[in-house]
Amino acid sequence: MQTPRPRYSAAALLRARFSRHFWKPLWNPAKPQDHYDVVIVGAGGHGLSTAYHLARDHGIKRIAIVEKNILGYGNVARNTTIVRSNYLLPENHYFYEDSLRRYEGLSRELNYNVMYSPRGVVDLANSDDEMVALARRGNAMRLAGIDAQLLDRPGLVRFAPELNPYLPRRYPIMGGLVQRRAGTVRHDAVAWGYARAAAALGVDIIERCEVLGLTTQAGVASGVETSLGHIRADRIVFAVAGHTGAIGTMLGIPLPVETHLLQAMVSEPIKPLVGSVLIYMYGHAEVYITQSDRGGLVMGGALDGMPSYTREPAWHRLEEIVQSAVALLPQIAGVKILRHWAGTNDQTMDGSPLIDRLKYDNVFLNGGWCYGGFKAIPASGAACATLVATGTAPDLIRNFRLSRFASGHMIDEKGAGPYPVRQ
Amino acid sequence: MSLFTCPFCGSRNLEEFSFHKTLPNVAGGAFEEIYLRRDAPSHSDEHWQHRYGCRAWLRVQRNPSSGEVFAVELLTGTKP
Q1: Of A2, A115, A114, nearest in space to A55 by CA
Q2: FRET partner for A87 with CA separation of 20 to 30 A, picked from A33, A212, A273, B3?
Q3: What is the distance of C-alpha A273 from the center of its chain?
């Protein structure tokens, strides 16, 4: 049973100054009960958000989230905190725009500061052809009611003064496409905020409880076998992000998924320099740079390039990413890298997510997030909860079904073909 | 995991090799071959190329959870 929690506000903060008993744990660890209406596997962003929406929007009472490790230990802790909806294809941009709009109001909704910072995300172009491609993407976004603005070089200088587009480079910077409402969100706060809100609605959060298998009865799933015993469940949701492939293996279901590593790194703190999110894709490599509130430059690039579950980033990719970063911003050449890390990506065959039933009528998969998991959390939870509660997928995620590969309705944003490593 | 053993060139740095795709290991036809995978954490069966070396196409079996390489062989089976 969850203890009542204080509502956060300026007045509450003042009261807390004079009270020893104001601050409570955001959620209390729960012991698994015998039976739940819904069991969600994975206490990451998508699992927590799905649980929150199941409890709040659909009034489902008995919900458990079981987590192999600790809450928010996977990709919600490993991403580069960028939120955006600057996608070309309508299947993607309507969905991610829904997510971005939810992020804009998330601090108020959860009563927990997720530090949404609309600092702008700009994709840079190296050639006139790429400017044409960015213009096409921007026009597609604007037709869908999403903000987008094409910047030429003078516009780029005004938007990002730290960047000199006139500098001679092997891959020159011709301009960019900016989405100003896009930006960053404090990633851990999203996990903790959803956990606090879900726990307040009565969701059981069970950490250090590994799911070992699915039990079935008469052709439907009846529960999950876990390291803390069997838990019966009417409906089961797998929201395990980078371990979707492992779930497929556990259940014996081949999936359109390969598991790859994506790494990121952060530099030592420096004075405010990068005011937005800069994305520089050129030739075969890429880098994106943002600066955290603490001053560290947060950087990432392409996939490590081979299937892996190790979470150990490859050194040659690190080198490539920092070289690209210095090509973009030569003034950071002397800055040292403090930490680098990797997360496992469940890369799908078309680079777009999977939210659908999985083999059984009462088992659901929320995964295949590739690079796009963090920015999708609020919309994914709301839409997945609707699918689980009503049995019908809302329009927003109807295109994310598993059968799209057989029916030829791939959502291949990059046009890369069925090669997960290139998505 | 930093070294692969190419059947022609011997032990070489991983950066010389490029990964192409995983093999499905799923029974079925062209659809399964192209789109479905058994993405097991303990075993992965892959096509690679020694791209920045002898350019041979290779079949590599690895453990993606530990990085251990079980076998590297030529796609054609034997050396010409």
Answers
A1: A2
A2: A273
A3: 25
Point out the residue among B31, B32, B39 whose CB comes nearest to the CB of A249. B39
What class, spelled out in words, does domain B3-74 have in CATH? alpha beta
**A chain contacts of residue B59, beta-carbon cutoff 8 Å:** none
Inter-chain contact B14–A349, Cβ cutoff 8 Å?
Answer: no
Amino acid at A38: V
CB environment A305-322: b (16+ within 10 A), e (fewer): bbbbbbeebbeebbebbb
Model ipTM value: 0.94
Give residue B27's pLDDT.
86
Q: What are the sequence ranges of the domains in chain B? A: 3-74
Going by their DSSP bridges, the two strands A277-282 and A285-291 should be labelled as antiparallel
> 10-residue block means of pLDDT along chain B (80 residues)?
84 93 89 93 95 95 93 85
Looking at residue A2, its pLDDT comes to 55
8 Å CB contact between A193 and A114? yes
The span from the first CA to the last CA of chain B, in angstroms, equals 28
Of A256, A309, A314, Cβ closest to residue B35: A256
Residue A3 CA from chain centroid, whole number = 30
The list of chain A residues with pLDDT below 70 reads: 1-4
Angle between helices A373-390 and A45-58 (to 10 degrees): 40
The pLDDT score that the predictor gives to residue B77 is: 80
| Domains in chain A: ranges and CATH | 32-78+187-256+350-422 (3.50.50.60), 117-182+259-348 (3.30.9.10)
Task: From chain A, pick out residues whose CB is under 8 angstroms from the CB of B45.
Answer: none
Whether residues B40 and A249 touch (CB distance < 8 A) is answered with yes
Q: Which of B19, B26, B37 sits opposite A305 (nearest CB)?
A: B19
| CB of A277 closer than 8 Å to CB of B31 | no
Q: How many CB pairs under 8 A join A and B?
A: 72
pLDDT value for B79: 75
Q: How far is B64 from chain A (nearest CA, A)?
A: 4
Q: For position A5, what pLDDT does the model report?
A: 75
Considering only CB atoms, B41 lies closest to which of A246, A312, A349, namely A246
CA distance B80 to chain A (A): 28
| Pairing of the two strands B44-49 and B57-62 | antiparallel
Residue A307 to residue B40, Cβ atoms within 8 A = no
Joined together, the tokens standing for residue A45 give: 């962003």
pLDDT of residue B3: 81
pLDDT for res B1: 47
Contact assignment for A309 to B64 by CB distance below 8 Å: yes
Show the DSSP H helices in A220-355 as ranges. Answer: 244-251, 315-328
Residues B64, A307: C-beta atoms closer than 8 Å: yes
